[in-house]
Each structure stands twice: as structure tokens, then as C-alpha cells.
Design brief:
The complex is a heterodimer of chains A (270) and B (283).
Chain A (H helix, E strand, L loop, with lengths): L1 E9 L11 E8 L9 E9 L6 H12 L15 H18 L6 H8 L3 E10 L7 E7 L3 E6 L2 E6 L14 E2 L5 H7 L1 E6 L5 E5 L1 H12 L5 H6 L4 H13 L8 E9 L11
Antiparallel strand pairs in A: 1-11, 2-3, 3-4, 4-5, 4-8, 5-9, 6-7, 6-10, 10-11
Chain B lengths: L11 E9 L14 H20 E3 L2 E2 L3 E10 L6 E5 L11 E2 H6 L3 E6 L7 E6 L11 H18 L7 E6 L13 H10 L1 E2 L2 E2 L1 E7 L7 E2 L11 H7 L5 H9 L11 E5 L2 H12 L6
Chain lengths: 270, 283
């Protein structure tokens, strides 16, 4: 099977696209040229606004999770607790070793408070088989959705729209938080089929998606699974913010479609 | 109402009215610290907290808040009794100051004992010094600060409403002031609004006695003077601040007011200031 990933994003209203502070990425691995890949890996993260250099932390996490050589041995973290905990620790070590010296005592104190990002990431394995599987790990209020035939199969973590607040769990730069992060991680997997779609979203958009689902809005999945030019996505976000249905925050939606055969057309939105 | 988050486009406004009357010279809870010293330390602590919230990255401090500190009672700059801004040094005579400017202009930076590591020290900036003298012209303080708050609200109609916190240990001595009572001045202050709600007016009555704190009551029953007066002019706690209180283990009920009586240590004062000034930041 092939995958067709795309990332939609929008900064807070009135801000430039360069001020978007979430992060998202994907990569395909394995498979000979011209054949289906074996595995796809993906991640979405949201840096906590009030923490120090959260955008850099998000970039480091995403880049490492999608890189196969972050530990120097050609491996990447498995989607299970011990491996992810070890990866978090290596990320904290990297953060500390790469940190620039604080300019003054206020920055020093701020750095001591740590930096935080919510996280949902994972992989799709067995793309070269008829029964691929998604596996995901989440920490905080970024959410994965699995959609089939215009219906929601699963969302993970299984938040209700009322469960989102301003102090979510997340991946911290503070070594003393490692134990708690290890305990707070959640894991989930699910069976995939050709034509399925996986979404991963940061909190503002995820909450809106869950609200629509709770209200039985049958237009949601056809809209998000269908042709979605970036301009239409931006307009959707703007309208929902103005209707107070979506929080004015950085917005990220990653969509990964599973195709039974390679796409034979390319659509370019200008 | 009270749902707007703080951002660079929609900064917040925090104003502290600081009683600098003579009675603030009394010692606090049997300690060697006076009420004036404890209040100044608490205000410096909350200013530091606001600076830290605004410190976005290396060399980057966002303009999340405009902050004013107005002392009433002794006026160290102009002399005599009245109201004047309590910032010193470069910021003297400035009414509402953007937090990045406050960050860069303390009047001193002192080494203080670290709360985290025994024997260690941390550097703490000082913006407000303890001062005491004269009587308690609280009405005038509300009037002076209210003018600045009004102008700020006009310029920031989409922002979270201004938060005004009054720290006092005494009985108001200028009621009525300029033809209006304490209640009238408080009412004028809380009549100032943005699209997100009316200005919030919180009152904290500090006491040298360890007579038991009354925090965020929903009624003034049983409070000695001037408790009922301060309760009456205090705003109901909005939902975000009720959540702030719950997060530090302080319970509230429907109708709880932003009012604390007989606060007998500065640690509790800092906690109350944090509850009253923490609004979600978003950008």
C-alpha cells in the first residue's frame, strides 16, 4: 500500500505563517524503488506557549523521531514504553548539551522551569502487506483519528471535547519529569485497510473535530477526507474561530491516506 | 466572558494598589518582616513571575502585560501623603509599563536564599521597595489607577479585562473622595470593561495577627471591619481564577469574591497574587 501524507497548518489569527509553533512530519521507509514502502512514521507536536524556546524543542523531537540515526546505531524508538522513555531521556540530554548559555539570570530561571510539548506520534507498519497496522504513542492533548468509509473508527487518546484544558501533559526537557512522562504515555494500535485515513491534530483542531463528532456532524469526515486545498483549510479555521467553535491557537492537521495503488494524478493548488 | 487569553495582540493589564500607610510598619505574623516589606517582596515576586511568563526564548521577551503599581499613603518621590506610582529608578513616574521594560529595569538585583536548594542563592530583581507613612487614601488610589485602566481598556477592547489588586492593612481614610464614596469609586473601576468582561477588582487585607485567613468568601458574615466593606467592593471570582485557586488547593464556591481577609503571611499573599494574575497565554 502507498500512503499519501499532507500537513495542513495555520498560525494564530493575525500572525504570520512563520510564527506557527507546532510541528509535524512524516517519512516512509523500506521497500525497493517502485514498490510499496514497509513502514511510515509520523509525528505531531505542540510546544507549550509559556515555556522557553518551545519551537526548538518541537523541532528537535520531530526531527529525531523521524530520523533513523538519532542514537547512532541506525535504530529509532519503538512504540513501547521502555524504548520511548529511553528516547525521551536522549532528547533531554541533547537539549541540555545543545542549549546556549542564558543571557541573564531571568533566562536562567526560565530555562530551569523546563520546556514542554504535547505529542502524538507513531508508525504504520506492514504497508507491504494487506493488513497494515497503526501504532501510536501520545503524551498530552494532541490526538490521532482513524477514519474509514466516512466514519470515525477510533480516536486516541479518547478525549471528549470537555477534556481539553490549558495545562496538558507533555514531553518535558526536565530530567526530573522523566519518570512521570514514562507513566503518562498512552499507547494504542489499530488495523488499517486500503482507503482508510489517519489524522493527527494538535489541540485546537482536535477539540473541534471531537466536538463535531459529538454533535453528529456528518459533514466533518467527508470534508476532511476530500479534496482540501490549503486555502479552504485556512478559511475553515478562520470561520470556526470567528464562530468561537475553535480556539484561536496554532492549528495543525496531518492527514495520511492509505492508497491501494500509487496515485496516478497530481493536484497542485496554486 | 473572561475567556480571552493573553497574547501579543491582546495583552493583559495588571494593576496593584499598594497600601503604604504608616500601619504597614507593623511586623507580619510575629516575624521580623514588616507588612510593607512582605507586600513589597510579594509584588516583586509576582512581577518576576510575569517576566518569566513573557520570556519566550533567548533574548525574547513578549509584551504580554502592561503593569502598574500604585502606592498610596506615603509618597517617597513627591513627598507627603497621596498616590504615586511605586516603581523606582528608570521606571519612576511611569503608570502602566510593558513587561519587557519592567524586566530590563529593576532598581536592584539581590541574592536571596533559594527555595529549592539549601544554602544556595538565586538572583531576584527588585522593582518596588517597602515604604510606609501617613494615612490610607484608598479612594484616591482607585481614582488615579482607574483613569489609567480606563485609557488602557479603550486601547485594548479585545483583551482580557484589566485586573486590579488592592493590598491593604487598614481602614480607608479618604471616604468620600472628590464627592464619591469608596463603593462609588469601586463601582466606577469595575464599570470599565473590554469586550471580554468588566475590570476585576480584588482586595487583600493583610494583618499582623495570625487570626486565620478567610480566602475567597461568598459572604461577609462574621467578618470584622473593614471586612464587609472590602468584600462588598470586590469582584466575583471568574471561572479562570477559580480554576487557578483549585490548582493550588484553595477551594471556592459559587459567588466567591476576589477577596481575602487577615492574610497573615507573605507566602499566602504571593499565592493569592498568582491566582489573581494567571490568565492563559496563547502565542
Amino acid at each position: 500500500m502507498q500512503i499519501q501524507p499532507v500537513v495542513f497548518s495555520a498560525p494564530k489569527e493575525g500572525y504570520a505563517p512563520t510564527e506557527w509553533e507546532d510541528g509535524a512530519g512524516h517519512v516512509c521507509l523500506g521497500g525497493a524503488p517502485g514498490l510499496d514502502p514497509q513502514t511510515a512514521r509520523f509525528a505531531v507536536a505542540d510546544g507549550a506557549t509559556e515555556t522557553y524556546e518551545s519551537r526548538l524543542w518541537v523541532c528537535q523531537l520531530i526531527a529525531s523521531f523521524l530520523s533513523s540515526d538519532h542514537r547512532g546505531d541506525g535504530a529509532w524508538p519503538d512504540i513501547e514504553r521502555a524504548s520511548m522513555t529511553a528516547w525521551f531521556k536522549s532528547m533531554q540530554d541533547t537539549w541540555r548539551s545543545a542549549a546556549a548559555a542564558p543571557a541573564d539570570y531571568i533566562e536562567e530561571m526560565k530555562i530551569r522551569q523546563g520546556t514542554l510539548a504535547t505529542w502524538v506520534g507513531g508508525q504504520i507498519v506492514g504497508l507491504d502487506t494487506p493488513t497494515p497496522v497503526w501504532q501510536a504513542v501520545a503524551l498530552g492533548d494532541s490526538v490521532l483519528f482513524h477514519v474509514r468509509g466516512g466514519r470515525l473508527v477510533e480516536h486516541f487518546p479518547r478525549f471528549r471535547s470537555t477534556d481539553f484544558d490549558s495545562a496538558p501533559d507533555g514531553v518535558s526537557t526536565l530530567p526530573e519529569r522523566l519518570g512521570r512522562m514514562s507513566e503518562q504515555m498512552r499507547f494504542k494500535h489499530g488495523q488499517l485497510a486500503a482507503g482508510d485515513t489517519i489524522f493527527a491534530a494538535t489541540d485546537a483542531f482536535a477539540k473541534w473535530m471531537i466536538s463535531c463528532e459529538e454533535q453528529g456532524d456528518e459533514t466533518l469526515w467527508p470534508l476532511l477526507c476530500g479534496p482540501l486545498p490549503p486555502s479552504v483549510f485556512s478559511q475553515l479555521v478562520t470561520e470556526q474561530r470567528r464562530a468561537m467553535a475553535m480556539k484561536d491557537d496554532d492549528v495543525t492537521l496531518m492527514r495520511i491516506r492509505l492508497l491501494s495503488e500509487p496515485a496516478n494524478t497530481v493536484v497542485v493548488y496554486l | 466572558m473572561y475567556e480571552q487569553s493573553i497574547s501579543r495582540r491582546r495583552p493583559g493589564c495588571v494593576v496593584v494598589l499598594l497600601d503604604r500607610s504608616d500601619s504597614m510598619n507593623r511586623s507580619w505574623g510575629g516575624s521580623s518582616e514588616t507588612l510593607a516589606q512582605g507586600a513589597a517582596r510579594a509584588i516583586n515576586s509576582i512581577l518576576m513571575e510575569l517576566c518569566l511568563r513573557a520570556q519566550k526564548g533567548q533574548g525574547v521577551s513578549y509584551h504580554y502585560f502592561d503593569v502598574g503599581i500604585f502606592g498610596y499613603g506615603a509618597r517617597p518621590v513627591a513627598g507627603g501623603e497621596g498616590v504615586e506610582t511605586a516603581f523606582g529608578g528608570t521606571l519612576a513616574n511611569r503608570a502602566l509599563v510593558p513587561i519587557p521594560e519592567i524586566r530590563d529595569n529593576p532598581i536592584a538585583v539581590r541574592e536571596v536564599a533559594s527555595g529549592d536548594v539549601a544554602g544556595a542563592t538565586v538572583r531576584m530583581p527588585v522593582w518596588v521597595e517597602p515604604i510606609h507613612g501617613y494615612r490610607t487614601p484608598m479612594c484616591q488610589a482607585i481614582a488615579v489607577a482607574g483613569q489609567h485602566v480606563y485609557e488602557w481598556a479603550q486601547m485594548h477592547p479585545e483583551s482580557f479585562p484589566p485586573i486590579v489588586i488592592n493590598i491593604t492593612d487598614g481602614f480607608v481614610t479618604d471616604n468620600p473622595y472628590d464627592g464619591a464614596s469608596l463603593d462609588d469609586w469601586a463601582s466606577r473601576l469595575t464599570g470599565i470593561a473590554t469586550q471580554d468582561g468588566q475590570a476585576l477588582f480584588f482586595n487583600i487585607f493583610v494583618s499582623p495577627e495570625s487570626a486565620g485567613n478567610v480566602v475567597f468568601p461568598s459572604a461577609a458574615n462574621g467578618l470584622p471591619d473593614p471586612g464587609p466593606d472590602l468584600f462588598r467592593i470586590s469582584s466575583p471570582l471568574p471561572e479562570p481564577m477559580m480554576r487557578n485557586a483549585a490548582s493550588v488547593g484553595i477551594s471556592t464556591v459559587a459567588g466567591s469574591r476576589g477577596f481575602a481577609f487577615n492574610v497573615s503571611d507573605s507566602t499566602m499573599l504571593v499565592k493569592l497574587l498568582e491566582i489573581g494574575t494567571r490568565v492563559e497565554t496563547r502565542d
